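Allow me, if you will, to draw on your knowledge of protein folds for a short while. I have a record of one protein: its chain in single-letter code and its fold written as discrete structure tokens. I should value your view on which stretches of the chain appear to form regular backbone elements. Thank you for your consideration; the sequence and its tokens are set out here:
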Amino acid sequence: MSATMRAVQLTAIGRPLEMREVPLPAVGPLDVLVQVRAAGLCHSDAHYRSGLSPAGPLPLTLGHEVSGVVAQVGEQVTGWRPGDRVCLHYLATCGSCAYCYRGAEQFCTTGQMIGKHRDGGYAEFIAVPARSVFSLPDEIPFEHGAVAMCSSATAFHALRKARLAVGETVAVFGVGGLGMSAVQLAQAMGALAVFAVDRDAGRLALAERLGAVPVKVDHAGAGSGRFPVVDELRRLTGGRGVDVALDLVGVEATLRPAVLSLAPFGRAVAVGLGDRPVPIYPYQELINREAEIIGCSDHLASEIPPLLELIRGGRLDLAPVVTDVIPLDADTINAALDRLDRYAAGGVRTVIRV
């Protein structure tokens, strides 16, 4: 094995990523070295590149949706051997702090996210703690295994945070990569109806094929505080509203109507990363309906095995979600991130095949 490898790195905020030759990652006694086979491009990666969401220290290899094959294991690692197909939980955690003990490792006191705080998967190899490694079933392609590690896992966590119960209705605001998984997972979890809310006709058509009721966003009247999509969701639910609303975008034009569309006892889950405040009127919008707004951060390692079973069993189909496969090439990756920055990605999810 060579002592160096290729990696596409962020070297300066606001600048294009660069292909660099870097040392092969060191493998600690509790680590696993993985040869990357697939790495997904997430909108968060575009935010890291632009500086909207802080990442570093630089230079930094981006990429937190990763699958591959075990190449080497640390001397204290058991249960893994070279050649095993794996996917990676994107949090590298200590496993011993109070948050890790309670199964809330996204708040680990020393935790680091791969591709944000430590080197990620836009590379030929990556080293992670063994506790972050999960077996990827043979039935799941590497591309799907990579995408599952962020967009699907975060959608799954959001629905679990929402306490979705069998027979409830769900509105998904933003049917990109996370949204397409959320649409299918909500149905798998027993939702009576799932409404896909977006402005893109192509994405709405795909969401409809996956079983959702499409609801096209009309921004007319939004500046005055009115959101026609709320009226449409109430019409579709007989005036009641939805039980669960997922905001996967993170802007006022999605979080406000997500809250306004709630039925009594409804739960709006804030998932999308926004950088501006959103007005909420507690009495009219929350107290009067005993509604809730729930924050959703990342996902849990314990959620990955059942999620993979849903994929393996065909209840979550990621084939329509992975719409573009590109090589490990800086120019091609930058072009894909540019499209994400412009919200102009023609497909749903782009994956690097290494």
